[in-house]
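Progress narrative, Year 2. Work on FMN reductase from Bordetella petrii advanced from sequence curation to structure prediction during this period.
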Amino acid sequence: MPILMLAGSPALHSRSSALLRYAGRRLAARGLPGSELGLRDLPAEDLIEGRYSGAAASHLRRRVAQAQALLIASPVYKASFAGGLKAILDLLDEKALADKIVLPIATGGSAAHLLALEYSLKPVLSALGARHILAGVYATDRQVTVRHDEAAIDAEVRARLDAAVDRLAAHVTTAPPARGYDLAYLALNARFSI
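Result:
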């Protein structure tokens, strides 16, 4: 049951990455360790030029294909998720997130950008085949502070993130991964088939 954590921030010690790593530690404590792959792990030239056939892109696609669930974290810039994360997602196959459970996580300057998850990130995840996207977790800069390698997370954000991670863990441990079809679609068709 591999879990892949995609970090979309260009900064090593960003707020969004701090939330991602906190979520990863919570999953590991539940016996569901994950691995992290981020913007900084892929060659900048490959991202800028969209080198789909490059070794880094192939490695990325392999890691995503092996994952049952993904946590995807991004800072919000100008009311949208980070362009670097979009460059990563552009290197994936068209339906790379089909049959995956996805938990989006984002941080931004103010609560005014809360809907960036709904209106900018989730449509891209859906275009990549994701049909099981959990309710995302958004935090403002005031709710997460990072100094060097240490992060302080507001209690309310921590509670929301804990609940989201627990939901993801429940889905991963109880539902076998689907193969090639959206489970909700199959259930709906089974109900209405003649």
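The CA atoms of residues 10 and 40 lie 6 Å apart. The helical segments are 15-29, 44-49, 55-66, 83-89, 116-127, 155-174, 183-192.
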